[in-house]
Amino acid sequence: MTIYIRYALTFFLLLFSSSLMAQTSNTDTPVQMINAKAKVFYLVRHAEKREGKDPSLSAQGKLRAIRLAKVLSSTPLAKVYTTDYKRTRETALAVAEDQHLAPSLYDPTDLKKAAEVLLTQQGHILVIGHSNTTTALVEHLGAEKQPAINDASEFDRLYVVTVDGNNREVSTVLLRY
After folding, report:
1. What is the pTM of this model?
2. Which of 3, 82, 141, 147 allows an S-S link to 88, with CB 3.0 to 4.6 Å?
3. Do 66 and 100 share a domain, yes or no?
């Protein structure tokens, strides 16, 4: 008898969640909403760096990069994007190695194009940028305006931007790591 109750509850939960999904958009049918694959972007600024032109990560930055890998260890990433600077590539290194991925490069001077490329991707995607590009890229992905990152001292923001399969609905969460 207990198994039948579980099956009935599961059926009603699925039915209820499907009806909620159908109510989120007037233009999509429930089948389209269920089949639409959401993509999830994780955007961070590079970890703490040393001084100089194109510097490497500091000791604290290396620890933060390892912490990022631990935070994302239970999330199967499809891709890792980074800019072509030592500090961003080094921030990506632990995550990429843990997930057996080769980081891809994007151009931080053309964030509109970067967002267009990202929005064609599927799955969970990590993007590592800079204090002057991370919040702008979050906004290009469809989020509301974000507060600027303090260039001197703020390295712990982790944006989680979820975009539905049709690139219409965007949800943004700001975490610290």
Report:
1. 0.80
2. 82
3. yes
Q: What is the 3-state secondary structure (H, E, C) of the chain?
A: CHHHHHHHHHHHHHHHHHHHHHHCCCCCCHHHHHHCCCEEEEEEECCCECCCCCCCECHHHHHHHHHHHHHCCCCCEEEEEECCCHHHHHHHHHHHHHCCCCCEECCCCCHHHHHHHHCCCCEEEEEEECCCCHHHHHHHCCCCCCCCCCCCCCCCEEEEEEECCCCCCEEEEEEEC
Same domain, residue pair 9 and 75: no
Q: Which domain holds residue 120?
A: 36-176
